[in-house]
């Protein structure tokens, strides 16, 4: 059974930084994509950033220039460095690890709260 364990959320002032971490425990087949999504109250869950097994990245427009996603394949870990945080970044952030093909899978973390407020 694979579990995604997230950490790093919290309360930060506007302009501050946070680093989110997500580690997949259990037996997981390599060659996957990893990503971060977020969901603010009353809004749909949206992609923040994703990274392929080869290190190619994609960012939402709102994250470009402020957030950096990275991964450590040996540790099955994905990180999200968030700088210059804004109140509109306030949301629950979810880690996602998925793989197409066979075997395919789609795992989600439990979510970690990020609150940006003065």
Summarize it.
The chain is mainly beta. Helix content is 0%, strand content 53%.
How would you describe this structure to a colleague?
It contains no helices and 11 strands. With about 120 residues, the chain is mainly beta. Strands 2, 4, 5, 6, 9, 10 and 11 form a 7-stranded mixed β-sheet that branches. It has a 4-stranded antiparallel β-sheet with strand order 1-3-8-7, with no helix packed on it. Strand 5 and strand 6 form a beta hairpin. It is globular and about 45 Å long. The termini are far apart.
List the helices and strands and how they pair.
Blueprint: E1 3-7, E2 10-12, E3 18-25, E4 33-39, E5 46-51, E6 57-59, E7 67-72, E8 77-82, E9 91-99, E10 105-108, E11 112-116
Parallel strand pairs: 2-11
Antiparallel strand pairs: 1-3, 3-8, 4-5, 4-9, 5-6, 7-8, 9-10, 9-11
Quickly list its features:
seven-stranded mixed β-sheet, 11 strands, mainly beta, single chain, globular, 118 residues
């Amino acid at each position: 059974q694979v579990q995604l364990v997230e950490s790093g959320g919290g309360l930060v002032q506007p302009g501050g930084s946070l680093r989110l971490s997500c580690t997949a425990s259990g037996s997981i087949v390599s060659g996957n994509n990893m990503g971060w999504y977020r969901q603010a109250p009353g809004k749909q869950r949206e992609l923040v950033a994703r990274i392929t097994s080869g290190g190619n990245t994609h960012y939402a427009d709102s994250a470009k220039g402020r957030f950096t996603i990275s991964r450590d394949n040996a540790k099955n870990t994905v990180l999200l460095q968030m700088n210059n945080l804004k109140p509109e970044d306030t949301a629950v952030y979810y880690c996602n690890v998925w793989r197409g093909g066979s075997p395919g899978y789609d795992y989600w973390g439990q979510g970690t709260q990020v609150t940006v407020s003065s």
